[in-house]
Amino acid sequence: MSSTKEMVFNFSAGPASLPKEVMLQAQADLVDWNGLGTSVMEISHRSKEFIQVAEEAEQDLRDLLDIPDNYKVLFCHGGARGQFAAVPANLLGSASKATYIDAGYWAESAAKEAEKYCQPHIYKAKHEQDGHLAVLPASQWEIDPESAFVHFCPNETIDGIEINDLPETDKPIVADMSSTILSREIDVSKYGVIYAGAQKNIGPAGICIVIVRDDLLDLAQNTLPSILNYKELAEKDSMYNTPPTFAWYLSGCVFKWLKQQGGVQAIEKVNREKAAILYSYIDESDFYKNSVHSNNRSIMNVPFTLAKPELDAEFLELAKEQGLVALKGHRAVGGMRASIYNAMPIEGVQALVKFMREFEANNA
Amino acid sequence: MSSTKEMVFNFSAGPASLPKEVMLQAQADLVDWNGLGTSVMEISHRSKEFIQVAEEAEQDLRDLLDIPDNYKVLFCHGGARGQFAAVPANLLGSASKATYIDAGYWAESAAKEAEKYCQPHIYKAKHEQDGHLAVLPASQWEIDPESAFVHFCPNETIDGIEINDLPETDKPIVADMSSTILSREIDVSKYGVIYAGAQKNIGPAGICIVIVRDDLLDLAQNTLPSILNYKELAEKDSMYNTPPTFAWYLSGCVFKWLKQQGGVQAIEKVNREKAAILYSYIDESDFYKNSVHSNNRSIMNVPFTLAKPELDAEFLELAKEQGLVALKGHRAVGGMRASIYNAMPIEGVQALVKFMREFEANNA
């Protein structure tokens, strides 16, 4: 086996870093899991061994998020993009409208896919405040009264924007939590549907978690593919077809790891500390800049720019030499982005700030 | 790391055994792939490192199946069940009919999902011949002239049935090759669409290969979710959204392994030899029975029953003690089933026959 580099901190926005302890355990067990002499990915999803994996993963997630009993937890194919279609096709019923709150790239993408199924009422919530990017308070969001639901994305990975409030509404609230789930405490009972692609805070790409209130299971359109139908998935315990078993297993390992860290409350504290270290340094520096208003700064994705963009390539190259990888910003916005999901240890953020400080000293 | 059992032969129908060499390499590389200090599942699907994985996997598959240039190769979410919906929703165009050849459980399931999109003309091709299960010759299949396409499943995993001929028709032929792809030579140019869930002959569950002729890309229905839209996937090189990267990587490793074995022609020879060993013994024995006609016996899935079904549990228990696992038949048909996909070495089949012979001697 090749030796593992000691000091790589991976700031990828997704597929993102997974907890090192989880990866080492998965490696140890890869060809002989549970004493079976085979990998967990080589056994039937209907075997008692895999059913136990599946059930434990669901229960651990229920524990971590304190999910009420009247919510189903589904493990789906198709990623969050699949849910951009699945949400309207499952929830519209006889309605033809839904409200989409637009505060960034992902919310906008969800609204675009929804046009296949309904007339999305799009409310632009992103605005400028004191020279910074910000999101209007949820109390001001304009919700179309004929909407079947209200969709929003509480953390925009590309823009580095986070939304911390919820609207007062009798419509089901649907949230794309791909890049924020399990990073901070939430009250699941306030939502109709929460969904999240795994590849940030949960596990490898190729699985998507859907948490859906059970009174919303009877509204699906006839032409919805069964693999995306909440009711069919709920009735079959997410085994309508062969699920992505290895991704489900690894997600379950991450849930157990998170419980060992003290759960969501404990990891939120660490996440806020990590974000504070990075934003504080950026704010005190004249060389780096983050343009999001402090009310809406993401604790998961921290985009920043250099005062001298011509040094971007050098910054990335030197960072990589120090084991600080995947810091390049999204192609839509340029600059840098440090994604500091649950699996990023505080030492990674400290190492990044140390490097940024040195780079500034050499180039300011 | 726990030690690997030497002698486990895994006859699971799917998720199935993967080549041992591939699994050992994946294990060695799991936490530090390609010298990056991270796993391949922790890097961006848009990184140059992953793009290379993706492109090589596609090229290797093209080489293995000699896929003509006018076919797109897609790596999709959703498994073959996702394609049960995707096929009609992508191919119907303005047609409202399609022909579904029914020779087993999976073909029937595909036809049922198709009812959401069209009126499937279902032709029952399974019949009894000389006291055995058989499939009517493709030349006799009744194809509705208004059909947009003809769908069939050339290998039925549960029934243990294989179809080796194709109808003469001007309609695009669509084949669910989940359990037969790469097991024997095929002429891709005869098909409109070939699709296959990975978890038998390709890789882990959670990825599905679609090979589609490029003149069929413009017929999709408006309400088809983008993640299942062939044209969108083709235009985006299967990265319309984050693909299941680890499953894609591992599939690519299996393709390279298969090339090292000499490709499809060479593995077909081994597969036919493996199947012949098992069927020959079953036929010479009075204790075991396979009820499929020799014309249609699957070389991938071999169901068989014991003369004394009350010994089923003991058979399974003793087999497991000898490292012969996952031999229980599908719950729909009972008995036993040995799935002997590409990754099953001939030694596994020999060990199974040796055990069956001993069990017969002790219990006949």
From TrEMBL, chains A, B:
GO terms for molecular function: O-phospho-L-serine:2-oxoglutarate aminotransferase activity. Binds 1 pyridoxal phosphate per subunit. Its main location: cytoplasm. PANTHER family: PHOSPHOSERINE AMINOTRANSFERASE. HAMAP family: SerC_aminotrans_5. The modification N6-(pyridoxal phosphate)lysine is found at residue 200. Gene3D superfamilies: Aspartate Aminotransferase, domain 1 (3.90.1150.10), Type I PLP-dependent aspartate aminotransferase-like (Major domain) (3.40.640.10). Pfam families: Aminotran_5. It is found in: Cytoplasm. NCBIfam families: PRK05355.1, serC_1. Pyridoxal 5'-phosphate binds at residues 80-81, 106, 157, 176, 199, 241-242. Residues 8-352 form the Aminotransferase class V domain. Catalyzes the reversible conversion of 3-phosphohydroxypyruvate to phosphoserine and of 3-hydroxy-2-oxo-4-phosphonooxybutanoate to phosphohydroxythreonine. It comes from Vibrio marisflavi CECT 7928. It comes from the Bacteria. Its cofactor is pyridoxal 5'-phosphate. The lineage of its organism: Bacteria, Pseudomonadati, Pseudomonadota, Gammaproteobacteria, Vibrionales. This is Phosphoserine aminotransferase.
